[in-house]
Hints:
The chain has 134 residues and is mainly alpha-helical. It has one domain: Arc Repressor Mutant, subunit A, CATH 1.10.10. The chain is built from seven helices and no strands. The protein has helices at 3-12, 21-27, 32-41, 46-63, 72-78, 84-95, 99-105. α2 (21-27) packs across α3. The chain is elongated, with a radius of gyration of 17 Å. The protein starts with a helix and ends in a 29-residue tail after the last helix.
Amino acid sequence: MTLRALQRYIAANLDDHSMSPAAVAAANGISVRQLHRLFQEGGTSIGKWVRRERLGRCAAELRDPSRRADSLTVIAFRWGFKDSAHFSRTFREQYGQTPRAFRASQAFRPIPLHPDPRSRTGVRRSDWADGRTG
């Protein structure tokens, strides 16, 4: 079992509220000790990695105009957070602002549908989600 294989499994199950190191280890046929060792060798812990990935999924949804109607709590709970206050604290630690402020700051930013490697931002003008250019 490799760290990448474990990360793929976890990423596919980030929305599982019952995911735990024991469950991940059992599903992948390894011991909990081996699971922790593999993540430690990768320079992190399973808990930190899962939290960072879940926060990333939440941030993506906060940027997504089609998710504007979803409350912050709905988004947080969708990705495995069980407490709104904990979500807000960890989000602020990771992104430097509250989820609400982050969502507001993303309102007119482009969403790269097809990254353009020739662009400094990686976004073509035609990819701006709100239709604005310049």
